[in-house]
């Protein structure tokens, strides 16, 4: 357990600050990819108009009580619903600008639809941080990050990344490189290629090395999950090089005691059908549904369903702060 001094840390203050609102929005839960290790089921399509209206109303209702609004776009593939992303982002960005608030917006996208024109549109409404996944060099990537039609996706993503690089826009791109036992041996050469193409003398790009986990997908048993020893070797091999290139390896535990977004009461996931959740991984778990968003912008949250997600703030158990879904309490 952490000691009581944790209550005085910036991480704790941020987690309980009711003048910060983080909305993780799923404008669609459909996807144009069928990654072999994916855990999502794509049952819910694009966000209905009444949910879009409700989100905009929520932002309008809360704006005078906030210092910072953060909108994170997730999916599915959020850019399949680009009009929704642009509409809500513009609403939030404009209100924050008019009221002197900080507006932060990021998007997790597979990158296939991220044309130069769309990047400009997203940038203009305040979406300035992009996370895009790669599974190693083309021959590896195209075997796991498949389009819905079964074709590879590497060439289009790489071309779009080059377009971002050439744009000159002030933004941040995190290249999330997935690592398994299958592609572990490709990492040295692939990182060299990323460094040469994107990281070298361009501080807008960074890389995260992320071992793939078994998260409940239909192909979980086929995933070559890294052993503890392999993870340690990955950290040792790439640690100094990655840090030198302004990048970070999320295989290493955060020494400052990471508080997962799902463990913070000021962070909410709003799904495409208006359900309110806490976690973007546990999408098929009924315990992850804590309420509904109304069309007039009211959050109908059931506190008894919220409480288990934020229990770590009271217990100071690092495991409950870092991943509240792990060892989730059994509820009736």
Automatic annotation (TrEMBL):
What Gene3D superfamilies has UniProt attached to this entry? Aldolase class I
Give any GO molecular function from the UniProt entry.
catalytic activity
Tell me where in this chain the Radical SAM core domain is found.
Answer: 26-191
InterPro entries under this entry? Aldolase_TIM (IPR013785), rSAM (IPR007197), rSAM_sf (IPR058240)
Report the protein name in the record: Radical SAM protein
Q: Where are the annotated coiled coils located?
A: none
Entry keyword set: 4Fe-4S, Iron, Iron-sulfur, Metal-binding, S-adenosyl-L-methionine
Q: Which cofactor does it need?
A: [4Fe-4S] cluster
